[in-house]
Write a structure and sequence with these properties.
Length: 559
């Protein structure tokens, strides 16, 4: 018995050593596995960090008006996608989804659920109510992804200025928002800064004044409807620093609906900015330019008598609708708006002089506003400046400019003769005045003429006279070019007006137009600017003046 126990006892140390060695190997194995897991986890974490840095939802700066009202901002939203292989009762689910999204087609949805695809988007963006309804289904295979989207709190307000965006790239938790038009496009690089630390502030402040903008749009829409016009536009601008206070184009659009896939095949003209992109023959608002050049060059004074009998240039007869004396003063030519007198003045000024004043007032080049649409809009000017060209251009035919061009030109005429560049951005200070391009005496004389157009009982804008504000300006009515044959359409016009106020110390220019208006509220139908656009401008000035801290004349005189 003793001999048989000795080998067994001898084996015990060996067994213990083997167990210890085995345990050591197990510990080393687990350690290696732990290290590997830690390495993979670290690598995955780095991958996630890289993903979040490069493909996270990109924030976009807010857009606000001069008072801080938010005009455009980003909101958090949810996208929805489907993994069909995880859905068992496909017909039931398709019907449930139809109940939540009435625009979905059940047959199309069933095709997507059954055609073997692994993944498809249901909706790129859903409302909180729709998100909750989907979540309450408790249905496997329906997944949610984070999403940001652009939101415009005031809908259609200032839509042509702000513009809109589109999602150009997207993934489950990622969407790249890019500007398509307006400020959203013009300031794409500033709005879409990726690194938050690079942002000096969280908003781009525009020069627009939201309450003024709202009044302008309301009056424009009302008057467009009353006059039966197909479109219209208004711009109000500070004549000293060029800040655009309001800019409205009608018809407009709601930028919030641009992200809705259902909004398709709509009239593309609603995106057209009549103030900035549209160029029109403006008619008699051009008459003031020949006068300004003549005064600037000391060719005549407001009392100078000019031949206003009708005459011919080659085969073209230049005449007036109303009778003038054989000779009329320049004052009367502008107040009563004589084509004959204007043509005579242009011939006195000559090609060189007319081109010179147009150049000084910015009428031969894009207007220079930050909006991309403005930089792409060039005036249409004659190639050959013959005598007949000088004559017709002097009263606004044969040359086409935008409404913003007119506003800029009249701002220079009214601010003492300093060049001004329109801007859509709020300026933190008045800044230095632009270069002096006209004499102050020229500006002063032009202001007298513009006021007389309103205050003189023979003036074409006499119904603009207000008991609250001193306003000056010039009317313009131009027949539209016929699309089918040479010449113009007698029954279709563009009516416009450009004015300055308050004249005791001019601060603002207002330019307005209506495309194909007709006032049928009078004894006889009227298409002229004097009976279509001018009443609208009077209402605009009286409504917006107080909003811009312009005291009515009766109150201002007491201070």
């Amino acid at each position: 018995m003793s001999n048989s126990k000795k080998p067994l006892l001898a084996e015990l140390p060996r067994t213990r050593a083997r167990l210890i060695l085995f345990g050591l190997f197990v510990m080393i194995g687990f350690s290696m596995i732990s290290v590997k897991i830690a390495f993979l986890a670290s690598k995955e974490n780095k991958k996630n960090i890289r993903y979040s840095e490069t493909e996270k939802i990109q924030s976009r700066l807010d857009i606000s008006d001069r008072n801080g009202y938010i005009l455009a901002t980003n909101l958090d939203g949810v996208s929805v996608y489907i993994r069909p292989e995880e859905i068992q009762k496909k017909l039931v689910v398709a019907q449930q989804l139809k109940n939540i999204f009435p625009d979905l087609d059940v047959d199309v949805l069933l095709d997507k659920l059954n055609d073997g695809r692994k993944f498809f988007w249901l909706k790129s963006l859903v409302s909180p109510k729709q998100e909750k309804a989907l979540f309450d289904l408790g249905q496997p295979g329906i997944y949610f992804g984070e999403r940001e989207y652009r939101f415009y709190p005031y809908g259609t307000l200032a839509s042509h200025v702000i513009g809109y965006t589109k999602v150009n790239e997207f993934d489950v938790n990622y969407a790249k928002i890019s500007g398509i038009s307006g400020v959203e496009k013009a300031f794409e690089d500033e709005l879409a800064i990726k690194n938050v630390s690079q942002k000096k502030n969280n908003t781009i402040s525009l020069s627009l004044d939201l309450p003024v903008q709202a009044e302008v749009e309301n009056v424009l829409k009302e008057w467009q409807k009353r006059m039966g016009a197909k479109a219209g536009g208004v711009v109000m601008m500070d004549i000293h620093n060029g800040e655009v206070i309001a800019l409205a184009s009608s018809p407009g659009f709601d930028a919030n609906k641009e992200k809705d896939e259902r909004v398709k095949n709509k009239d593309a003209s609603i995106y057209f900015n009549r103030v900035v992109q549209g160029v029109y023959e403006m008619g008699s608002t051009f008459k003031i330019f020949s006068v300004a050049q003549g005064i600037e060059k000391d060719l005549f004074t407001l009392d100078t008598q000019i031949d206003t009998k009708s005459f011919r240039i080659n085969s073209r007869k230049i005449e007036d609708k109303y009778n003038f004396n054989n000779k009329s003063s320049i004052y009367e030519i502008i107040v009563r708006s004589s084509n004959v007198g204007s043509a005579r003045l242009a011939l006195m000024v000559g090609e060189k002089g007319l081109k010179e004043i147009f150049s000084k007032l910015g009428l031969l080049e894009p207007v220079g506003l930050e909006l991309r649409e403005a930089n792409l809009t060039r005036p249409i000017v004659p190639k050959n400046w013959r005598d007949i060209t000088l004559a017709t251009v002097s009263y606004g035919y044969g040359v086409s400019v935008s409404l913003l061009h007119l506003a800029k030109a009249y701002a220079i005429l009214g601010n003492g003769g300093y060049y001004v560049a329109p801007t859509i951005l709020k300026k933190n200070h008045d800044g230095n005045r632009g270069a002096k391009v006209l004499k102050k005496t020229t500006s002063d004389e032009i202001l007298k003429l513009l006021e007389a157009v309103v205050t003189d009982q023979r003036g074409t804008a006499r119904i603009l006279e207000s008991k609250y504000y001193r306003i000056g300006g010039k009317t313009g009515t131009a027949e539209k070019v016929s699309p089918n044959k040479r010449g113009y359409q007698k029954d279709k016009v563009v009516a416009n007006f450009v004015g300055l106020f308050p004249l005791e110390k001019p601060r603002f220019v207002i330019a307005a137009l209506l495309d194909e208006p007709e006032n049928n509220l009078l004894k006889e139908p009227c298409r002229y600017a004097s009976c279509t656009v001018v009443p609208m401008v009077k209402k605009l000035v009286e409504r917006t003046g107080p909003l811009m801290n312009v005291l009515p004349e009766s109150y201002a005189s007491n201070f």
